[in-house]
User: Fold this.
Amino acid sequence: MILSVPFEHSASTVKGVRDQLREGQILVSMGVPLATAVGDGAARTIGIWQGSCAELVKSLVPRGVEVVSAFQNVSAHRLQNLEESVECDVVVSGSKSARERVMALCPLVPGLRAVDGGPLSNARIVEQMTALLIGMNMRYKTPEGLGVRFTGLPDPPA
Assistant:
């Protein structure tokens, strides 16, 4: 399951679907605690007790449901037109087994490359990058949205 709602609706949405979540499922959090949730700008984030939106979501799901953080830094505009290659890296954070399963899905979207982001606590950093990218999109006037590519990564095993 993928949770793709504005941050201010994350908790209520998870609570609304909580009874349908089962042990062994993976819930992908795309949320970012953007300051728009409190009436400020999208180029800033707000601090939340759990550390990140993904960690907030993890605190709300039933035991045995894995939460993975991914796709925050991929422009929605790029994902809407999959006839063109997205050309973006996706940082995937969470437990090793869950993040590997989500990483395996990323190449199904042309131009997406999965990058192992380590434990879920690293979602805090990745979510902050989203606000940076939004600010850069505004300054550079890039409606299609900037993306991130990490250089120097080894090729994945064949």
The CA atoms of residues 73 and 130 lie 5 Å apart. Strands lie at 2-3, 26-29, 66-69, 88-92, 112-116. The chain has one domain: 2-140.
